[in-house]
Every structure is written in C-alpha cells, then in structure tokens.
What does this fold into?
Amino acid sequence: MNRRQFSKTLAIGLGSTALYAADSRKLKIGYTCITWGTFPRGDEAAATLEPALRDIASLGFNGFETFPEVLDNWDKKGALTQLLERHKLPLTSAYCRTNLIEPAKRKETVDAVIGMGKVIKKYGGKFGVLAPNGMQREGYDFKAHKASIIAGLNDCAMALNDLGLGAGLHQHTGTAIETRDETYAVMEGVNTKHCKFAPDVGQLQKGGADAAQCVKDFLSITVHMHLKDWKGWDHYVGYCPLGQGKVDIKRILDMVEKSNSSANIMVELDPSANAPMTPLETAQTSKAYLQNLGYKFKQ
It folds into this structure.
C-alpha cells in the first residue's frame, strides 16, 4: 500500500456512514504498543512507549497493553505515573511471558508472573495475558509437554487471580501452543475458572486455524483478545491493518458483542522493517475499519 492508497482507504473508512448502529456496539477498543517497537529490550525499546501512547491516545482508543518489563522500566525511573497522566490513556493489560514446558522452573515462572502482576495492578491494569514460551517447533512433541503446560497455566492464572487480576491463555505461533489442536487441547484441559481464553486471532489464522470458529467454540470464556488481521504478505510478519486480511474480524466482534461486551479488545499489528505505513497510519487505518462497523472512540 502506497501513500495514495493509504489516504484513499482512510478516507473511505472515516467518511462513510457506519454500517451498524453505534448503540449496538458496546465493546471498548484498546491497542497494544508493539507496532512502535515497544518490547522488553532495554531502555531504547522502553523509550518507544511514549510515542506509542501519544498516537494511541490521539486516536481515541480506550486503553493500551504492553509488557510488564516495559512498565517496570518506567516505574523504576519514577516516570510512569506522569507518562500515563500526560496522555490520559489507561493501562488495560500486560503481556506476561512464561515457561510452561519445564516443570523444574515452575516456581520461578510463577514468581516472575506474580512480580509482573504487581506492576500491572499498581498502574490500574486488570488483566495478565499468559503467553507460552517461544521454542523451536521442528521436532516438538506437544503431547509430551501437555500436562506441564496445563499445570503451569493453572498455577500462573491462579497467582494473577490472587492479585485481583484476570488471566487467560494467549496462544502464539512459534511457541509451545501454536496450532488449532494444541489450543483446543489446552483450553479443554485448564481450569477455566481461573484461566480464560485470551486469543490472538491473527496468530490463530496464521497457525492454520479458522480464528472465528475458535472464538465461537470458546466464546463463553473469551474475555481478552488481540484483534489482529493476517494476509501473509511481506510486511508486518504477514499481518496487516484490520479489514485487509483473511481473519473474519466482523464475525468475531459480532460474537463477542453478544457474549461479553465487557471483554478487552486490543488491536495489534507487529512491527516491520521497511514498513509501507507509519505506526500511526496503521492505527488510523484499523480505526477507520472499526468506525465503519459502528465503533466510537474518545474525542
């Protein structure tokens, strides 16, 4: 997409009449910060949190998600409270990386999640996204690790619940839980009183699943989501702004609206070298798509 195409797409989204009555849309839409390169990789990456919050807030999104380590980086400098107040953007959730396949490291993992949870709660967040550990998928035997994965998720989720936070599984390509069958096996095995479903719908589609069907099958426990589209092109690790890919975003949102209109919906797009749009432009494009579905944003 070149700049002319971007402007045309944005104008269509912003200028068209919403297809759905605004009062039928209750979900509050937030945004994650990774498009701006906000990862737990030291001071330089943590510094991108401010431009991310500035852009997300300027578009009227209702909250943000980042990594607890990034929050901790700002917290230790005594600057996070001022940052949040400056942009008037609330923290919704944070992405908690875990080790689920090594039982010997279970206590270490749970202790780390508790530390992450305390930072989330300190700054008003409500949810801890439980992400499986990344790994080499070639030769991976999910069945051999299934019991450890489920036990680890249960322990981590209960630890976050004890802090007053919600928790849920966030399956992800390139981790211990990637495919449709792995996702179903885990969600059918965990204690869903504590560990809900917090999918990345773009990752589901990229991993070979029908993302909308997965959400439907676990709809009653889908309380948090990374709303991401995927089309398998050369940018953004194959992902794209909402409405330009293969994920049935409208169907997913329609289902969640009817099931749990208080669910956390966080738009996301991975960063990309030589990206055809700036992070702000990608967020503007996704916002325009959501407005066309009837969603309102803060002024």
About this structure: The chain has one domain: 26-292. Confidence is low (pLDDT under 50) at residues 12-20.
